[in-house]
Design a protein that fits this description.
Largest sheet: 2 strands, antiparallel
Number of strands: 4
Shape: globular
Structural class: mainly alpha
Helix content: 40-55%
Strand order of the largest sheet: 1-2
Number of helices: 7
Oligomer: single chain
Radius of gyration: 19 Å
Strand content: 5-15%
Order of helices and strands: HHHHHEEHEEH
Distance between the termini: 36 Å
């Protein structure tokens, strides 16, 4: 019996916040068995799980969503559309460092990135100043700007060759292994499923040859 899918059971195999966000569907390849962001409340549950936005901001956004359900629905739709753009963008990076990305995907990604980075501001820290995102208590898209900042950080600080797409489910992940040979988001789930599939295929081919 398979476990019930929910934010609580969602695996965090992306290695970076923006990839965790992309991976809030059960699969990008094959049949998608579950949508983890089915409501704005689940978006806030995901934010808590990945530890973004403080509790006061999450509660304020939940109140804002309850006050204006139409706006919350539109925000959820925007989050999902941008998630798809992020998947298409990073899938292209994983395939060939983005050399064949379409103009449409690049335009959508750059627009979301520009809006996200416009929310940055600098504040004093113990070692000087640091860049942080403004705490906005009425902007229902606030989680998205944090995700886009993560996407920028990954693209500018990580080796692109380490950005990969799981060959089984299509989840995007950052390969943090020393040899950079990781093929699946999770060796235990997708890795096992892929090996079982290939084993079955070999047995089928052997039977056909006999």
């Amino acid at each position: 019996m398979s476990k019930e899918r929910s934010i609580a059971t969602l695996s965090l195999d992306g290695g970076a916040l923006c990839f965790h966000f992309i991976n809030t569907v059960n699969a990008w390849r094959g049949i998608n068995l579950h949508e983890y962001l089915g409501s704005y409340q689940e978006v806030m549950e995901w934010c808590k799980k990945v530890d973004i936005l403080d509790e006061a901001q999450r509660n304020a956004l939940l109140q804002e969503a309850a006050k204006d359900e139409t706006a919350a629905g539109l925000a959820l739709q925007k989050l999902k559309k941008t998630r798809e753009t992020l998947y298409q963008f990073f899938s292209g990076i994983a395939e060939n460092d983005g050399s064949t990305l379409t103009a449409g995907v690049l335009e959508k990604f750059n627009k979301a990135l520009g809006t996200g980075l416009s929310k940055l501001q600098f504040e004093p820290s113990g070692t000087g100043i640091r860049a942080i995102l403004k705490q906005e208590y009425t902007d229902l898209l606030a989680p998205l700007w944090t995700v886009m900042k993560s996407a920028y950080d990954v693209l500018t600080t990580e080796e692109h060759i380490r950005i990969k797409e799981c060959g089984t489910c299509g989840w995007i992940f950052l390969d943090q292994t020393k040899n950079n040979k990781k093929r699946w988001c999770s060796p235990d789930s997708c890795g096992t499923a892929d090996k079982s599939k290939r084993y079955y295929q070999r047995k089928k081919e052997q039977s056909a040859e006999e």
